[in-house]
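#struct-help
A.M.: can someone run this one for me? Single chain, 285 residues.
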Amino acid sequence: MAVTLLLWASAFVAIRHLGRDVPPGALSLGRLLVASVALGVLVFRRPRTWPARRDWPLLLLCGVGWFGIYNLALNEAERRIDAGTSALIVQIGPIIVALLATVFLGEKMTRWLLIGMAVGFAGVVVIARGFSSGDSGDMVGVWLAVLAAVTYAVGVLAQKPLLGRLPGPEVTWLACVIGAVVCLPWSGELVSVVRDRDPSTLWWIAYLGIFPTAIAFSTWAYVLARSDAGTLTLTTFLVPFIATLIAWALLSEVPPPLTFVGGALCIAGVLLTRRKPRVAATAED
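D.P.: on it. Structure tokens below:
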């Protein structure tokens, strides 16, 4: 999980760096194509377990949402807001996981769950306010990051039952290939990037495909298959802080003060959603 957190945090910074020169669609497609090749080598080197017919709706949901739409939305968001803020907003995903779990998985909607959601979404409002208070504010970027958070949550909920029936490498590779297909309309942009950009830009795209995608999503799937999804997603709240430190060191970016206040509210909100109702003492107690 430590590998996953570090590589995912570095992805926010790399996307922000490449966003100045590489269009969002081309960046998404290039990253997913590299990851698909890298994961394909892993999958086809050993005996494979392919999904049954009942698995494909969840695979499509995960691939289209988390690998396709998520990447497109996040890449465009990071052209408008800084890496640390993007990472912070995406971390409302665990709140959305809790909400969708009550609808689709029959989990109980507790008072603490409702309070936590309210606090978490208040954090997003504070972050949005921080970036709309000056000339550098961009509400479109903020809400694109919110869309990324929603597709992240949907992806986690779709991926968890799949990992109970299929090996992690197969699930990750198929979802990655599906995401690449979603991004094929931007293949012309990618060809232009490969033809016109310098080698360092291509190396950064390769880095995103191999490390934060192929490796990090594989390590994530390994842990998710052996852990509770709700508890595991809480650990991703370390990502914004790691991303902010990396962006500060490499890109000289420090989010506005309100971003940290909003981020703290997001974290507090998710922690509140996980608080258990007090159990009444028994007569023997």
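A.M.: thanks! Residues 2-273 form one domain.
D.P.: also worth noting: The CA atoms of residues 127 and 248 lie 18 Å apart.
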